[in-house]
Design a protein that fits this description.
Number of helices of chain B: 0
Largest interface: A-B, 80 and 91 residues
Shape of chain A: elongated
InterPro entries (chain B): WD40/YVTN_repeat-like_dom_sf, WD40_PAC1, WD40_repeat_CS, WD40_repeat_dom_sf, WD40_rpt, WD_repeat_MORG1
Radius of gyration of chain A: 53 Å
Family (chain B): Belongs to the WD repeat MORG1 family.
Oligomer: heterodimer
Subcellular location (chain B): Cytoplasm
Radius of gyration of chain B: 19 Å
Keywords (chain B): Cytoplasm, Repeat, WD repeat
Order of helices and strands of chain B: EEEEEEEEEEEEEEEEEEEEEEEEEEEE
Number of strands of chain B: 28
Largest sheet of chain A: 2 strands, antiparallel
GO cellular component, one term (chain B): catalytic step 2 spliceosome
Shape of chain B: globular
Strand order of the largest sheet of chain B: 1-28-27-26
Chain lengths: 942, 316
């Protein structure tokens, strides 16, 4: 622990320099727009660009030689005392600092000094050195230097020497010398562009060619290889950039002085440098004009000496066919056999010239047009010859000079062989008929057709029926005849209070339907058995009727006015909810049932996969560096469609049609269906004798907790009776509530909207400590979130989480039976997979793993032993405690068998539910229970 | 002369417990490697988030700021940022070096089960039991999520990201893959509440573990079942699964205190690694080496292959 602080500092590695943290509230500086940006040099002067194409630079002061104060020439002062000392100005004295910098024309970069350079210096330097030796005060001093200079060779030379190379030789394997092809006539100067020296032909003059023994090989010539670098810049041909070497020393071999040509040979030693004159000194290059230090204007361009031009036609072209091309000669010599190949340019690596010339494409002349051809096309109107327009046809055919046959020519390609044969007058061959139908008599054909139609209709009917029955069976309304009275009764007893339900006009869009629906409501009110059937439109198909029947029944139940108890718990949504349209996702994941079976059969793939169009948010795409797949769409998420809000279709599941909206309810339908097969869950509004009927199932379900269940039963009954006595309602309302409750219960998960409605307010608030926050939430859950009339799975969550408060506070609500609460409690704990329990002996904080319910947390620090004493104090207080206890138990038993958990939790929830009769309860804890609790205590303490 | 490619060595499985991290964080809800596997994060139920060097076993830093237990965390590609989510319904965005909370994203209505960064750490994607996946923008200062993916019908237990996909496993038994590039959503139904989803390293498959004690390897494009791995126990808790560093093995935690390794292709059980007596809740596999981190109850252990010799054990 002690080392931790230092460790954490040492081990952190930071890369790069962090940006200055922005001050709170300080705005980041706005970047300058491009037009306002200026280029300045390091001294802060504006940089001016000269000659955008030549890449020039700004010289001096505003392109003058002066300075800000004007042009100040160096003043010559010489007096008797102060003799003017001869200032030897180097080129550098006339250069700006920029020129000497890294990117200037004379960069002062680190270069190999002579001491470290190779022994073989370039000729220019050599000459300069000799020159210096001559001009030096002690002649030959540098020669002495040379003599005593250590032989320092670059490592490359050393290596080459070790490998047997000697100066003056070329590098490469030794070669046999070939006899020379042609001898250049000695003494004849070749003018124009000089041929590049080629490998074997360049300078063999030194060798005796006559004697060439076979076994003698020679080192290759020391030649610079022909440079094959392609031209990849955009400069003009033969453009050369500024060479600082030349710029400074003025050594340029290419520059010929037209007239000093002759002197070149004589003054060999001093000729090319002429430092005393300083002639070639200065910047020269094609990118620049005449330099200030250049004397001769005519020297600035690479002019050729006049004497180098031919004045007489001579037979000097050696017949190589190059005519001035400076390509390497070997191509020519190699390809001599193919005279007609004129390609003498560079050939790319890996390519060779074609041995055969491409056969030139023959180009045929276009066909000659007839004399009277007019390049205009008329479209002939297409007229199908019928009796009415036969006249027109005739005139048309006359005008075109063609006879439109009865069969219009346009149909030519639609004819089949037999028809063509017919047109030609052939007798059809019997065997060629394609269909067996053609052998049938007319009567038979008709019969077949009839049968076909009938089967189709039948199939459609069967399908529709199956659909209906499936829809029925999928829903909580079974279609089977024995269940029909039940539903009828439900609806009847549900007391659909027609007067009020007329406020809801679920089919307002379709007045006919609405009328039928109202009639149906009236029928129900009167208690007719066939309420639905009688009001349906007989003109409709079976399928439609089935559907409408279904709708009506559901609508009658859905759109009943909320009971007083329910309405007290919900307020209307703040947003205007009265629009008739509701947004429903266009595509819905279809039914789970067939998927489940597919999963069971392990047929993953198409059966288990749903694919939807999904629109990511534009910003999200941007953040993911992905182009927006739907750049034009304004939708985000799944595409939605507007639906009738009160259309029951929103809540119907028709499994076949995915286009129809099958809302989330579909899942719940399945579950409802599922739960229907099981013993019906008791709901809190069940009347006592119903409850008794169900006892068996409960106790069966909780066979382990038989004894506890017994207690529960005894306590429950008077309790419920009490509650009933206080809130005596008509039986019809009860059943109605029952329905509502069932719905609540069966809805597996609350919808997102509901979550939002509940949590939205509190989650907006700042809440750093979860415990307070969550307890607030518990409270807020108790207030009604928002009653959404369309959602049948109303507030499962609300119910579960606020169960305690509701049961305690809402007066007219009877006490919920045990099992219900238990289920709910279980549910609230398990939103999906739980987190494993923790027993952490070395936990730093002795804290219980966080639980979902904050009640529990807020009380978890209390010792459970105190529970008993405190139990008598407050009612709801005890509630919490009980629940907490239960919760803990749950945790501990995490790994125990399911049954056991269930048992214990029920027994516990028995306790909790019976809190109202708590005085009796305390005594009634079984000794085993006590024992168990005692056992658990140390663990909890830990 | 070309040398033949060296034969790929047989993948080794981590069998040897090299180090145990002295977490003292209560229950360790999740353990995660950073992007290159040099560091790891442990999410404790004591509201703290710790950064470790797992091989050396040193605690580098503790990040505290959550209001309730931390359930998941992730590190950014450049190791400079962290994100974490917890039972306090908040998603936190941390600076690694300073330990400060850069952003606090609130908006989930329930506890946040899982968090992930995208490739460039510009977006945090979090899944919560409120059945939504939210994408939070780390660049701008807006408090709302960039997008809410609320297609899930139940809590989202696991979220993974690739460069252009968001894979979310939900308790409603579906794993949904949002393909941003195609603009499509693929929902695969597995029938049982999903506890963990993973992409394979080649991005071709998804591994889905669910509460029916089985893992399924699905083809990403078609949704077809490529393999099913059973034998472990996962009935009630949210446990992790992952793939080994070269996709050769499927690894899953189990409620019986073991970690199970299956051969990915053959589907046979390759190794059962006894980790503890409690439930092994979280796993993390090193991105490049055969190194596994397990979190069981309050203990985090680091496992290496048999031939592994720790640096400090090497002769100097």
């Amino acid at each position: 622990m002690a080392a931790r602080g230092s460790d954490s500092d040492d081990d952190l590695v930071t890369y790069g320099t962090g940006l200055e943290p922005l001050e709170e509230g300080e705005r980041p500086k706005k970047p300058l727009p491009i037009q306002d940006q200026t280029v300045r040099d390091e001294k802060g002067r504006y940089k001016r660009f000269h000659g955008a194409f030549s890449g020039g630079f700004s010289a001096g002061y505003f392109n003058t030689v002066g300075s800000k104060e004007g042009w100040t020439p160096s003043t010559f002062i010489s007096s008797r005392q102060n003799r003017a000392d001869k200032a030897i100005l180097g080129p550098e004295d006339f250069m700006d600092e920029e020129d000497l910098s890294e990117f200037g024309i004379a960069p002062k970069a680190i270069v190999t000094t002579d001491d470290f350079a190779s022994k073989t210096k370039d000729r220019i330097r050599e000459k300069a050195r000799q020159l210096a030796a001559v001009a030096a005060p002690i002649p030959g001093a540098t020669i002495l230097d040379d003599l005593i200079a250590p032989a320092k060779l670059s490592i490359g030379f050393e290596l080459l020497r070790k490998m047997g190379w000697r100066e003056g030789q070329g590098i490469g394997p030794r070669v046999k010398r070939k006899p020379r092809r042609q001898k250049s006539v000695p003494g004849v100067k070749i003018y124009g562009c000089a041929l590049p020296p080629t490998g074997s032909e360049g300078s063999e003059d030194d060798y005796d060619d006559d004697y060439l023994p076979d076994n003698v090989t020679f080192a290759p010539k020391d030649i610079t290889p022909v440079d094959f670098t392609p031209k990849d810049n955009v400069h003009g041909l033969a453009y050369k950039g500024l060479d600082p070497q030349k710029a400074l020393f003025g050594i340029s071999e290419e520059h010929f002085n037209l007239f000093s040509d002759v002197a070149e040979g004589t003054s060999n030693l001093l000729g090319s440098i002429r430092p005393n004159k300083g002639r070639k000194l200065g910047i020269s290059g094609q990118a620049f004009g005449v330099g200030a230090l250049e004397e001769e204007d005519d020297d600035i361009y690479a002019t050729e000496a006049l004497s180098k031009y031919d004045t007489i036609l001579k037979d000097e072209e050696p017949g190589d066919g190059l005519y001035g091309w400076t390509a390497p000669k070997q191509y020519k010599s190699r390809k001599e056999s193919e005279k007609d190949i004129r390609y003498v340019g560079k050939i790319l690596d890996g390519f060779s010239l074609a041995s055969k010339p491409l056969s030139s494409k023959e180009i045929y002349p276009p066909p000659e047009l007839p004399k009277d051809y007019r390049p205009i096309h008329y479209f002939r109107p297409v007229v199908i010859a019928t009796s009415e327009n036969s006249h027109l046809c005739q005139t048309l055919s006359e005008s075109t000079g063609k006879i439109l046959s009865d069969m219009s020519r346009q149909n030519r390609y639609q004819l089949n062989a037999s028809k063509r044969g017919e047109m030609l007058g052939e007798t059809p061959i019997q065997g060629s008929t394609t269909s067996i139908l053609e052998f049938l008599s007319q009567k038979d054909k008709e019969r077949i057709n009839e049968m076909k139609r009938a089967t189709e209709i039948k199939a459609a009917e069967i399908k529709a029926k199956a659909l209906i029955s499936k829809a029925w069976s999928n829903r909580f309304q079974p279609d089977s005849p024995d269940d029909a009275p039940y539903t009828q009764q439900l609806v009847l007893s549900g007391n659909v209070t027609a007067g009020r339900s007329s406020d809801f006009r679920p089919f307002a869009k379709d007045p006919e339907k609405q009328k039928r629906y109202e009639k149906y409501l009236g029928n129900i009110k009167q208690g007719q058995k066939d309420a639905v059937e009688s009001c349906l439109d007989p003109k409709m198909t079976e399928w439609e009727r089935g559907r409408e029947r279904d709708e009506f029944v559901r609508a009658a139940m859905l759109y009943k006015p909320s009971s007083s108890s329910l309405s007290s718990r919900f307020t209307h949504a703040k947003l205007e909810d009265d629009t008739d349209q509701v947004e429903v996702p266009r595509d819905q994941e279809n039914d789970v049932d067939d998927k489940l079976s597919a999963v069971k059969m392990k047929m993953f793939g198409k059966l288990t996969r749903d694919k939807f169009e999904w629109h990511p948010e534009k910003l999200l795409c941007k953040r993911f560096n992905i182009p927006d797949p739907y750049p034009d769409s304004t939708i985000v998420g799944l595409p939605k469609v507007k639906r009738d809000k009160y259309s029951v279709f929103n809540f119907l599941t028709v499994t076949e049609s995915t286009t129809l909206s099958t809302t989330q309810v579909s899942n719940e339908r399945a579950q409802q269906n599922h739960s229907r097969n099981k013993p019906r869950k008791p709901s809190r509004w069940d009347i006592p004798d119903q409850e008794e009927k169900k006892e068996d199932s409960i106790s069966e379900f909780l066979s382990m907790a038989r004894s506890e269940a017994e207690i529960q039963k005894q306590q429950l009954r008077p309790l419920v009776n009490n509650a009933e006595g206080s809130t005596m309602e008509s039986s019809s309302t009860k059943v109605e509530n029952d329905r509502a409750d069932q719905k609540d219960e069966e809805g597996s998960r609350p919808s997102m909207d509901l979550f939002k409605a509940i949590f939205a307010s509190s989650s907006d608030e700042k809440s750093s400590s979860s415990e307070e926050d969550e307890s607030e939430n518990e409270d807020s859950q108790a207030d009604p979130g928002g009653s959404d009339p369309k959602s049948p799975k109303l507030s499962n969550l609300v119910e579960t989480s606020s169960n305690i408060q509701v049961s305690a506070m809402v007066v007219n609500e009877p006490v919920p039976p045990v099992t219900l609460q238990k289920m709910q409690l279980d549910e609230r704990e398990e939103f999906g997979p739980r987190l494993p329990p923790v027993f952490c002996p070395n936990a730093r904080h002795k804290q219980e793993p966080v639980q979902q319910s904050s009640f529990l947390e807020s009380h978890s620090k209390e010792k459970p032993k105190k529970n008993k004493e405190k139990r008598k104090t407050k009612k709801d207080h005890k509630h919490k405690k009980e629940k907490k206890k239960k919760h803990k138990k749950h945790k501990q038993k995490g790994k125990q068998k399911n049954k056991k958990t269930e048992k214990s939790s029920t027994s516990e929830s028995v306790d909790s539910s019976d809190s109202q009769s708590d005085t009796e309860k305390v005594k009634d804890i079984s000794p085993q229970e006590l024992l168990r609790r005692l056992k658990r205590l140390p663990i909890i303490k830990k | 002369m070309a040398f033949p490619e060296p034969r790929p060595t047989k993948p080794e499985l981590p069998r040897k417990s090299v180090r145990s991290l002295p977490c003292r964080q209560g229950a360790v809800r999740a353990v995660r490697f950073n992007v290159d596997g040099r560091y790891c994060l442990t999410c404790g139920s004591d509201k703290s988030l710790c950064l470790w060097s797992p091989l050396r076993g040193t605690l580098l830093r503790t990040y505290s700021g959550h209001g309730a237990e931390v359930l998941d965390a992730a590190g950014s590609f450049d190791n400079s940022r962290l994100c974490s989510g917890g039972s306090d319904r908040a998603v936190l965005f941390w600076d690694v070096a300073s330990g400060q909370i850069l952003r606090k994203f609130r908006g989930h209505a329930g506890k946040v089960n899982c968090v992930q960064f995208n490739e460039e750490a510009t977006v945090i994607v979090s899944g919560s039991i409120d059945s939504s996946v939210r994408c939070w923008d780390c660049r701008s200062r807006r408090p709302d999520p960039v997008q809410i993916l609320d297609e899930a019908k139940d809590g989202v237990s696991s979220v993974k990201l690739s460069d252009h996909e968001i894979l979310a496993g939900s308790v409603d038994g579906r794993s949904r893959r949002y393909d941003l590039r195609m603009g499509e959503l693929y929902a695969d139904y597995v029938g049982s509440p999903i506890t963990c989803v993973c992409f394979s390293k080649d991005g071709q498959c998804t591994l889905i573990s669910s509460l029916d004690s089985s893992l399924r390897l699905l083809d990403k494009d078609t949704g077809e079942l490529l393999g099913e791995y059973t034998g472990h126990k996962n009935r009630e808790y949210k446990l992790d699964c992952c793939l080994s560093e070269r996709d050769t093995h499927v690894v899953s935690a189990s409620e019986d205190g073991h970690v199970y390794f299956w051969d990915l292709v053959e589907g046979t059980l390759a190794l059962t690694l006894p980790v503890s007596h409690g439930v092994v809740q979280s796993l993390a596999f090193h991105p490049t080496e055969p190194c596994l981190l397990t979190a069981s109850e309050g203990n985090v252990q680091c496992w290496r292959e048999e031939s592994f010799v720790a640096e400090d054990e090497l002769p100097a």
